[in-house]
Design brief:
This protein is an alpha/beta fold. Helices cover 27% and strands 33% of the residues. Helix 1 packs parallel to helix 2 and helix 5 (211-223) runs parallel beside helix 6 (244-259). The protein is globular and about 55 Å long.
């Protein structure tokens, strides 16, 4: 398992009964998690929660606040800083389990930069920029693409908080598939590609994305953007149907077959301090040269 176990500001305190109790800096949040189907170990611990997200039977949900929280606050991960806040979709603007992928890609980028070679990274479905900031901090030039203007603005604020306002990051609000198609026509190439696609989504002009039918053709499309000496290709999945073996097969047939290298895929997880378990948080597939 790819384990995100280097956090200081973030912690899963306990999980069970379809929920998790988390510490986000000094703020304690209780949120749904369909993977946590076992009983919670210490129900008394859950009284620490300052806010609780309740799912609605009609879809979506809402927050119940037990105390006034800041409008937003800062989370630190090593040399990166991120703004977080409870959003209407239960999320906070940060997926802490992805730190394990940030560390992996940072090492690859840093090694190549130390050799005096530039690294161009394309981050698709880039959200609030965790991977973008990690790659940029390691010395890469990053193209950050997301269909949500609000998420791109949030990512820029995270970059500023991390001291990366002047870093070579290109910020784009665009449909990822259409952007990649245009980049292929332009003849542009990248040394590394990151994609963190949603299970379902719509682009700025109503373009529909369904991961089960869209992901493999999109990986094939993105492979055409890789440079002659590519560094890595990362695919994240929160969809239970895309198991590590599926990610391995997709990257092996679409990327490894043309560029060599090797593929490894595994579950991504967060340690749970209260019960010694690891909370599964999806899967990642990694190709590297």
């Amino acid at each position: 398992m790819f384990l995100a176990d280097q956090w200081q500001d973030y912690e899963v305190l306990d999980c069970g009964g379809g929920e998790k109790l988390e510490r986000w800096g000094d703020v304690y949040l209780r949120r749904p998690d369909p993977q946590a189907i076992w009983p919670a170990r210490d129900p008394s611990l859950w009284r620490k929660a300052q806010a609780h997200y309740h799912r609605s039977e009609k879809g979506g949900g809402s927050w119940e606040f037990f105390t006034k929280l800041p409008d937003r606050w800062v989370m630190n991960y090593k040399n990166l800083r991120f703004y977080v806040r409870p959003t209407g979709f239960k999320h906070t603007g940060l997926f802490p389990e992805q730190a394990t992928n940030w560390d992996w890609m940072t090492g690859l980028v840093s090694d190549r930069v130390k050799q005096g070679r530039g690294v161009r990274v394309l981050n698709l479905f880039a959200y609030t920029g965790g991977a973008t900031l990690s790659a940029a901090k390691a010395g890469a030039a990053v193209t950050h693409v997301d269909a949500s203007k609000g998420m791109v603005t949030w990512a820029k604020e995270n970059a500023a908080a991390s001291g990366l306002s002047d870093a070579p990051i290109r910020w784009l609000v665009d449909d990822c598939v259409k952007f990649v198609e245009r980049e292929i026509r332009r003849g542009n190439h990248y040394d590394a590609i990151i994609m963190d696609p949603p299970s379902y989504g719509r682009g700025p002009k109503g373009e529909i994305w369904k991961i089960e039918t869209s992901i493999y053709p999109f990986i094939q499309l993105c492979e055409k953007l890789l440079s002659d000496n590519p560094l890595f290709f990362l695919v994240n999945s929160y969809t239970t149907g895309l198991q590590p073996a599926v990610l391995t097969y997709m990257l092996s047939t679409a990327v490894k077959a043309n560029h060599g290298g090797h593929v490894i895929a595994d579950e991504v997880g967060l340690p749970v301090s209260g019960n010694g378990l690891v909370l599964p948080c999806g899967a990642s597939g990694r190709w590297e040269r």
